[in-house]
Design brief:
The chain has one helix at residues 120-124, and strands at 2-4, 10-13, 18-25, 36-39, 46-49, 59-61, 71-84, 93-95, 110-112, 127-131, 139-146. The chain is mostly beta strands and 148 residues long.
């Protein structure tokens, strides 16, 4: 169902249980479902892939194959399929990458048990949500995201 709030962008309730809105794909390539994105610095309503050590993820790409420069759906809250670099364990923290993390890939997330000191505060700022299913190997896993 597509709806809108007076004076705002249209939004869509996805079948997975997330809320999505359209943004401009400025990732430099066709969109990849599950990539985590951050605001673009020169294109209004544009998004680009996440970067290491930059805690400003705003959503998860919903559509695969949307050309760069075109409108794409981005899930900003609720359940979404997120692309993880490796195994995912249900009820883990889903987050972006710090310098100390191995395996960084732009736009992809990592899953880990709840972090401990001294990095628990730093890792919290990179958190995108909590995994709600498990999987083996890299790929999509349903995650309850909370950017709001």
């Amino acid at each position: 169902m597509i709806g809108s709030i007076k004076g705002s962008w249209p939004f869509w309730a996805t079948p997975e249980g997330g809320l999505a809105r359209q943004v401009i794909n400025k990732t430099g390539a066709a969109s990849v479902k599950g990539n985590i994105v951050r605001p673009h610095n020169t294109v209004a309503n544009g998004v680009k892939l996440t970067a290491q050590n930059i805690p400003d993820v705003i959503g998860v790409i919903y559509n695969d194959g949307v050309p760069d420069g075109s409108l794409v759906w981005m899930v900003f809250t609720g359940a979404a399929e997120v692309y993880f670099i490796t195994d995912v364990v249900m009820d883990n923290l889903a987050r972006g990458f710090l310098t100390a993390d191995a395996g960084f890939a732009a736009g992809q997330a990592m899953s880990e048990a709840f972090p401990t000191s001294p990095f628990s505060d730093d890792k919290h700022f990179y958190e995108i949500g909590h995994t709600i299913e498990s999987r083996t190997g890299a790929g999509l896993a349903k995650t309850n995201i909370h950017f709001l």
